[in-house]
Each structure stands twice: as structure tokens, then as C-alpha cells.
Amino acid sequence: MNVLVTGSSRGLGKSIILEYAKNGNDVIINYNNSKEEALELKHYVESTYRVKALVIHCDISKESDIDNMINEIYKELGHLDILVNNASIALDQDFELKTKNDFMKTLEINLVGTYLLSKKIGLKMLKVKSGNIINISSTNGLETTYPESIDYDASKAGIISLTHNLANYFAPYIRVNCICPGWINTDMNKDLDDNFKNKELDKIILGRFAEPEEIANLAYFLGTDKASYINDSIIRIDGGVKR
């Protein structure tokens, strides 16, 4: 199968690429700023797992970039089986200081970019009556709220709503599901204030943040035939929350 994972040069996206590649799938590594990391991942994937890996630059807040990426994928590979909408940003800032531009930039990448990719690729999948879309949201889109992340939280809640609409529109040929991770041990979270981190850890039943590979395992499972009857599902993966 051919699998596109957006924002996949590092972090969770990289782990998802590795999970699909090690199971024999050709992958498309998408990056915006991290070209060197994307090329290193391509080399590792191709030399280790003997699969094909494309590296494509795309700023998913720009529709022209999205169109160019899709055209390149279909030109090189002919078809796409799985889309994992992983790319996102978090511009945490004190609530009083957060600007409209901050809010709009977060929505354009996290939500509008996910919508455009899902629509454009989903319609191509619909023509061949086959495909799979996996959206990466967050527990921040459920009930976890932080005022300094109000734009991020709103974007992730929007992805959940988007998942329901896409699943209904593309039925019965394309399954659309959504993963809502809690805290993950990625570079994005490595500089958290110790006091804040300890408070968050205390809320988690398992007492630790997830490793990226644990979320990637779920993203891979949803793309396989073993998940053939899982559709329009919002799956929380956060180690459990103390009540």
C-alpha cells in the first residue's frame, strides 16, 4: 500500500512512517521546514525496510502546495491507499497575548489543511472505491482545556467534527477514523516546565507520557484489514485519566 503521513519528518509522524514501512508499505514523507530530517528518514526507511519512500515538501496551510504534493504522489505512485493527517502546530501563548493571527495560523494548518487534504485525496479514493483516512486529533479536542492553547484546542475539536462528516460523505468505500492522543514524549513536549509536567503525570493512570511508537501502533492498525469494521470512531489513547 501507499501511505501519506503529513508532518512526518520527525516526532509522531516519523514513528507512523516507520510503523507502516516496517510492515512493507511504500511511504510518502511530508515536511515543511525539516528537509534534512526528512531525507535522513527516507534513507533509513529504504535501506532498512526495502520499501519506496518519497519526500515531498508541502506547507499544508497553502492550497497550491497541497495540489502540487497530490499531483506528485499520483504521478510517481499512481494511487494512494492511506492518508494520515498528522501535521499540526501549537502556538501556546498567554490567553491575553494571543492574537487573531496566532489563532488563524493554527486553524489553517491543523484544521483547514486537514480538510483540504481529506477532500482532495478522498475524492480520488472515492473514484476507485477504496481508501482510508486517519486523522490525528488530541484529548485537547475532547475535554482537556488550556486557555493558552485555546486555538489548538479548537482546531483539534474541529478535526473530530470533520471526521464524522467525512466518514458519512465517503461511506461505504472509505473508512475515516480519528485518534486522540494525550501527552506524548516528543520534541514538542521536551521543554515542559517540571512542575506542570508533574501535575499532568499525576492525572494519568499509567503514570507516564506515551511513547510515539504506541500511538503509531494504533495508526497502523486502523489502516489494516484487521480494523475493517472500525469507522467514524474517535479513539482516545492517553493512558487513562484518574477520576
The total strand number stands at 7
Low-confidence stretches: none
Pattern of helices and strands: EHEHEHEHEHEHHE
Q: Major β-sheet, in short?
A: 7 strands, parallel
Q: How confident overall, as mean pLDDT?
A: 95
Helical percentage: 40-55%
The count of helical stretches stands at 7
Question: Any chance you could write out the topology, listing elements then pairs?
Answer:
Layout: E1 2-5, H1 11-22, E2 26-31, H2 35-49, E3 53-57, H3 63-77, E4 82-85, H4 100-127, E5 131-136, H5 150-170, E6 174-181, H6 194-203, H7 212-222, E7 234-237
Parallel strand pairs: 1-2, 1-4, 2-3, 4-5, 5-6, 6-7
Helix pairs in contact: 1-2, 1-7, 3-4, 4-5
Q: Could you write a compact summary of the structure shown?
A:
The protein has 243 residues and is α/β, with parallel strands linked by helices. It has seven helices and seven strands.
Protein architecture, described:
By secondary structure, this protein is of the alpha/beta class. Helix 3 packs parallel to helix 4 (100-127) and helix 4 (100-127) runs parallel beside helix 5. It has helices at residues 11-22, 35-49, 63-77, 100-127, 150-170, 194-203, 212-222; strands at 2-5, 26-31, 53-57, 82-85, 131-136, 174-181, 234-237. The chain is globular, with a radius of gyration of 17 Å. The model has no long low-confidence stretch (mean pLDDT 95).
Keywords:
single chain, 7 strands, 7 helices, about 15% strand, about 45% helix, about 240 residues, 7-stranded parallel beta sheet, alpha/beta
